[in-house]
From TrEMBL:
It holds the Pfam family Peripla_BP_3. Residues 12-66 form the HTH lacI-type domain. PROSITE patterns: HTH_LACI_1, HTH_LACI_2. Transmembrane segments: none annotated. Keywords: DNA-binding, Transcription, Transcription regulation. It comes from the Bacteria. This is LacI family DNA-binding transcriptional regulator. InterPro entries: HTH_LacI, LacI/GalR-like_sensor, Lambda_DNA-bd_dom_sf, Peripla_BP_I. GO terms for molecular function: DNA binding.
Length: 340
């Protein structure tokens, strides 16, 4: 033991600690894990020696020995939009809820923003041996990869749309129903010339556009126009500005593919003294916290992100435990505020 004048030498491994304590390495391992197989006096003595010498067991090595890492991979695939960043408000919202649920359950997170540059990008993640399971935020244009991996890797849950015959497990809302709600809201406000701002090569956003088309058809209105706007925030304003002349010439109701697109659209219209909702009604999609802080406050479709994140983590834990789980499809909800 140290006399107080010099700090004790640091212990590098269990073998060194066992030598100082005069016991076997197995006894040290069990004592540090708090196992009752080691009597209380010996256990406390070994733990005291470990503290004195600044020894902390390698938790990752222990976890790998028992085939459990206590690490969950959270993956954001951006095959459809390589310029989109994790700082996007939607990603920040769902990541926060996932992180809270996972860390409160004793798991660490390994976060990956992936630009799929090889067919086996997802296989390399799930077969790394570093993870107990994987949560994927968004299907992007990577349905084929998700389906292929889901055939053999069970502890994986994806935030996205549910389609007939789909094999990978998803949590998300019925995006087509959400798009229809947005359309019905605009039509209910007296709007007859509708448009969709957003991409349609992403499954979730394509369904939102199709839902808007459903609402227009049911009301006997022409099919809505579709104006392509990327999800990358650094290009939204410029792209919306490029559509603004066509919008102001013939559109009185806009359903946007995301809240962020809607916020940029409202700003672009305001810059041209086009009143929202007086001249043009606008709806968003997501119901991010920012949606009720804008002026005017954003009418939007809620994905219930908090509940969805909770469902994702619950399904993943069930799958890690060996339970076969199905997908969860939640109902969208219209949040009526000021822009429509």
């Amino acid at each position: 033991m140290a006399d107080g004048s010099n700090p004790p030498a640091r212990i590098r491994n269990i073998a060194e600690l066992a030598k100082i304590a005069g016991v076997s390495a197995g006894t040290v391992s069990r004592a540090l894990a708090g196992k009752s197989l080691v009597n209380k006096e010996t256990r406390e003595r070994i733990q005291a020696i470990a503290r004195e010498h600044g020894f902390r067991p390698n938790q990752m090595a222990r976890r790998l020995r028992v085939q459990e890492t206590k690490v969950i991979g959270v993956v954001v695939p951006l095959g459809h939009e390589q310029r989109q960043h994790l700082s996007d408000p939607f990603f920040m919202a769902i990541l926060g809820h996932l992180a809270d649920a996972l860390t409160e359950s004793g798991y660490d997170i390994m976060l990956s923003r992936v630009i799929p540059n090889a067919d086996d990008w997802l296989e390399r993640i799930v077969e790394s041996g570093m993870l107990d399971g994987v949560l994927v935020i968004g299907q992007s244009n990577q349905i084929e990869a998700l389906e292929r991996v889901a055939d053999y890797y069970k502890p994986m849950v994806v935030w996205g749309s549910l389609h007939p015959g789909q094999r990978h497990c998803t949590v998300g809302i019925n995006n087509r129903a959400g798009g229809r709600l947005a359309g019905e809201c605009l039509i209910g406000a007296g709007r007859k010339r509708l448009a969709f701002l957003g991409e349609t090569d992403v499954p979730e956003l394509r369904d939102r556009y199709l839902g808007l088309c459903d609402a227009a058809k049911a009301a006997g209105l022409p099919a809505p126009e579709q104006f392509h706007v990327h999800l990358a925030s650094d290009t939204m304003a410029e792209e919306i500005a490029g559509h603004i002349d066509r919008i102001r010439a013939g559109i009185d109701g806009i359903a946007c593919g995301s809240d962020l697109i809607a916020m940029h659209a409202v700003r672009a219209l305001a810059d041209l003294a086009i009143a929202v909702p007086g001249d043009i009604s606008v709806t968003g999609f997501d119901d991010l916290p920012l949606a009720e802080q804008t002026v005017p406050r954003l009418t939007t479709i809620s994905q219930n992100i908090a509940e969805g994140a909770k469902q994702m983590v619950g399904l993943l834990f069930g799958r890690i435990a060996g339970t076969e789980t199905g997908s969860v499809e939640m109902a969208p909800q219209l949040i009526l505020r000021d822009t429509a």
